[in-house]
């Protein structure tokens, strides 16, 4: 076609072309441009408003003198704006002891991330192959001390039974639980333990009740009658060695200023895993026991979050209710459908229809065919192996000329950026059905394995085989308003600067 013919046609032209031949030449170029078919692997690259690259300021991300403000660590604030309840959301590292070894923290996140992903994969596989009635297979997951639930990074403060409690938020599970007195085995937490006897509104859930039966959906194992035969005992394992065991109860939950009366939660008497020292966990999944289902009458099954970077000192937010005018999004919200999967009713699945790097749309046979999970607790996005390979090669093509650095754990595309102040990095967009897209924030493209930037990696990984489920991790959701609408079964993305400090 035209491209190869052009030189042949150009040669016969006179050295000083007439006006006529000039316009012919121009016409020819125009036509050859229009007719020129794009190479098979790429669609035409469209330059979007932002341009194909974004400037990334490395100075901000050298974590050498990062300060952590322990004052703000617990008691995240909350407020009500219009009909929305806004809970401040912090990254857990922001609340830990002053960090002396950032390299260790950064590397630990990646190592424990693989444990979380393995545990999600095995929960999903167990449900697919054996149906609902199987216990979680725990044998497959290595127990790694110190890594348990380490990737569930975001915390909020809620009221329960007249107290304030700081809990981790998790969209990958349903049951909310807190450590409870009397406790047979509790890990150390910063706030005093929840004491049922101090709350007049606290009630035990009976084991012969629908609530107790709902446990199976929410936790994968059914409730059992306790020693006193009337209580409903639960057991919830996260598959990474962390677990909670106790009895189901109800009490008044207060989200911001909004009460949720008779909220069902787990009073954990034997718990292990949450090394962040928080009081428990709040499940934002899709089944009947999740806080979203239980507050349906108040918030209509809609919530959204905006996850800040660790380097942001200000908080992000978890917003309950469908009042979109309180969001601070800078682009319109683009919605896609949540894919229902009756076998995995807890999880939020999306239809990944494409990926583009620097405006170049990549092709892969899996697009539009394989569901991908969106999760607040996984750090690094896991792509199907074939997708990851095309993403990696296009990224390397566009982000070239930088010294290579060794791979680290699941991250295999690494650079030594120690000599640079700032770099231009190609934008990464994930596309979903109905024209929705997640444009990965510039802080979500590269992961610092070493705080001094001598080892900085593309913050994406491939799954180990094509049968596993892809996951959109929280590192790629930063500075994005992610709106979950369980009523309409949709999910939306918009750009937002989460921390307005
Ligand atoms: C809980 O925190 C709120 C502020 O977010 C405060 O107004 C309230 O007094 C606290 N309640 C208790 C019981 O400490
Ligand atoms: C069982 O009942 C006894 C007496 O009512 C009570 O003291 C005990 O705390 C109960 N145990 C549990 C696990 O609820
Ligand atoms: C996912 O998107 C593709 C392409 O738009 C479409 O053909 C397919 O039906 C969608 N799958 C689901 C489950 O919605």
UniProtKB/TrEMBL annotation:
One of its GO terms (biological process) is proteolysis. The keyword Signal applies. Gene3D superfamilies: Acid Proteases. Keywords: Signal. It holds the Pfam family TAXi_C. It comes from the Eukaryota. Residues 154-494 form the Peptidase A1 domain. Residues 1-43 form the signal peptide. InterPro entries: Aspartic_peptidase_A1, Aspartic_peptidase_AS, CND41-like, PEPTIDASE_A1, Peptidase_aspartic_dom_sf, TAXi_C, TAXi_N. One of its GO terms (molecular function) is aspartic-type endopeptidase activity. The keyword Signal applies. The active site is at residues 170, 375. SUPFAM superfamilies: Acid proteases. Belongs to the peptidase A1 family. This is Peptidase A1 domain-containing protein. It comes from Lactuca sativa (Garden lettuce).
